[in-house]
């Protein structure tokens, strides 16, 4: 007949029931100090959000349960515990190196990793990821720039390879999601470009953690949100908070009005900027010309900031500037998240020469989503760069 274990003391059962109410603990070891289980001690190796090596004493009778720490807590009440920090290995292409360095400077949890970008004699990519085995089990991100078709192919080679290296998760950071060569989204070429690129990215292999996450900023048309397949999880961010922070630093921050060059820009951004007085412009055709007129709002005596998602040739922004100046604006500035400026079209924008809005802009803010543009306009008035580094670093922790 098999031997049966003696029943546990009621005090032990009570303590066990009490301890079962704790939900945030990891496996612990128990060592018994006597045969009757009247007293024992256990050590919790890792208490979630608490320093390790906490001791718990379970005593018999009505004595209380003691939770003791061998050393005082050094964690600040408002600081995040180390266990909550997501460590990320950030790869980048040559074009985004400067932005990647700024992102890494934002957080100690982001570690830069490089790729050897080489080509064979026939021009095809010859890429090498140093210490590829070293990223197994890590959270990996890649900072891309699809500024031209010539660089998209080689970056796709890396983007498709990284998730296959037994990594824990993969995030693609593409600050500017290209939509084609025209500012008019109704052009069929733009729709085809955006849809094709979204479908290509939707076929990125899944990592051990699941589908790829895509981080992008101020996508050009709202319908593009639905172009992605189920194998990619798009995270849509905005550069508008950077603009709002910069506007608060201006000496005339209490005299700001926001102008939208068309109804599309108003739909995208007016909710984020609704606490500012609003001016809406629109384009009208007179003969063979398209001109910009103020549809609603008053620019007289105000520092008016034109807001849009992107600029290419800049014709619409210049016409909007002229219309605002003609209607009495004291200053005119502009903000776009993506300064594309093909063929050096940024040179069309002049500085206003200390408050003459008819001659140019007081400020022209752009982000560093298009690295080539940043290199061209840096330190050239009226341009001023608002970096996405902090926003990207925060998005990588999601």
Automatic annotation (TrEMBL):
Domain Phosphoribosyltransferase: residue ranges: 233-338
Listed Pfam families: Pribosyltran, Pribosyltran_N
Domain Ribose-phosphate pyrophosphokinase N-terminal: 89-202
Catalytic activity, as annotated: D-ribose 5-phosphate + ATP = 5-phospho-alpha-D-ribose 1-diphosphate + AMP + H(+)
Keyword annotations of the record: Nucleotide biosynthesis
Similarity comment: family membership: Belongs to the ribose-phosphate pyrophosphokinase family.
This protein's name: Uncharacterized protein
Organism listed in the record: Hibiscus sabdariffa
Lineage: Eukaryota, Viridiplantae, Streptophyta, Embryophyta, Tracheophyta
